[in-house]
Write a structure and sequence with these properties.
The protein has helices at 2-14, 26-29, 31-38, 44-60, 67-98, 103-107, 113-126, 128-160, 166-181, 185-213, 220-242, 246-253, 265-277, 287-291; strands at residues 218-219, 281-282. The protein is mostly helical and 292 residues long. It has a domain at 189-292. The chain has a two-stranded antiparallel sheet. The longest helix is centred in the middle third of the chain and has 33 residues, at 128-160.
Length: 292
């Protein structure tokens, strides 16, 4: 993380003027929507579910003075991570906004713009040493995430499907990941995008429900409708994008923000609002698990 912050700071000093180039391609139609959807590829929200298993397990081994102190520590840790990660991504966004990208790069579908900005910024600021710097930065950043995910996923499968031991699940996941990693970034994104388009809106809905339900009671029926709406609209959107069915495409385009890839958002917010007024309200830490 320190290396990424250093690159952002030096890059902002080197490129002080925002790019004047007009958005091209899909970004011309909806820069925010496409940027938001491409953020799914970071898998940060999904990874956070896995990391919570490790983090909460570690915190349970800490002897807090009281339950209140335990809960406060969890909230403080979560808030700190949210602020720091938000600042990091904001810095990367500003760096991308200031870095000049040639039109030929925009038009080349094989180029990943995020990877291009990072690699070219490192090269132009630090030269060939910058490329080594970037390699070390990406390796360290991805290594910590990878270790956490492998540990969390292996723990889950070892507990739920004890056909294999924890170590065997770790070995299997590492081998499968090694094969998939060599497909290349664009190919990995192409393969995983349909799954992410379906899972991410559901995950975001669950996060919103969890946070709100900590403060107010929500209807069990309303919570189920919220998650169902997220999954249903996302499934229709995937059918429209990858199977090119006109009926599905027309339905998605008829939704608010449908042309931005965020057609699920308004239906989810409506169902979330209904959760506040429908009968059968429940609240507490297990409320969401109970309702879903």
């Amino acid at each position: 993380a320190i290396m990424i912050v250093l690159l952002i700071i030096v890059g902002m000093v080197a490129y002080t003027t925002p790019s004047t180039a007009a958005p091209m391609g899909k970004y011309a139609a909806s820069a925010f929507g496409n940027g938001f959807v491409e953020g799914y590829n970071t898998v940060d929200t999904l990874a956070s579910f896995a990391f919570c298993i490790i983090a909460l397990g570690a915190m349970k081994r800490i002897h807090f003075a009281s339950e209140k102190e335990h809960v406060a520590s969890v909230w403080m840790a979560g808030a700190a991570v949210a602020v720091l990660m938000g600042g990091l991504y904001l810095g990367l966004a500003l760096l991308g906004n200031h870095f000049p990208i040639p039109q030929s790069v925009y038009e080349d579908a094989s180029v990943n713009l995020g990877a291009y900005v990072l690699s070219q910024t490192s090269f132009q600021i630090f030269g060939t040493v910058g490329m080594a710097f970037l390699a070390v930065m990406v390796t360290l950043t991805c290594f910590t995430t990878t270790v956490g995910l492998i540990a969390a996923v292996s723990t889950f499968f070892a507990e739920e499907f004890p056909v294999l031991s924890y170590k065997k699940y770790v070995t299997l996941i590492c081998l499968v990941s090694l094969v998939l990693a060599n497909l290349g970034l664009n190919q990995i994104i192409q393969v995983t995008l349909p799954l992410l388009l379906f899972v991410y809106p559901i995950a975001i809905s669950v996060v919103m429900l969890t946070i709100i339900n900590k403060f107010v009671g929500l209807s069990k029926l309303g919570m189920r409708c919220t998650v169902t709406a997220a999954g249903l609209v996302s499934a229709i959107d995937i059918v429209a994008q990858f199977f090119h069915l006109d009926g599905a495409a027309a339905l998605i385009q008829g939704l608010p923000l449908g042309d931005s890839g965020l057609g699920w958002l308004v239906p989810v917010l409506i169902c979330l609002a209904l959760s506040l007024v429908l009968p059968g309200k429940i609240s507490g830490e297990s409320a969401l698990d109970e309702s879903l």
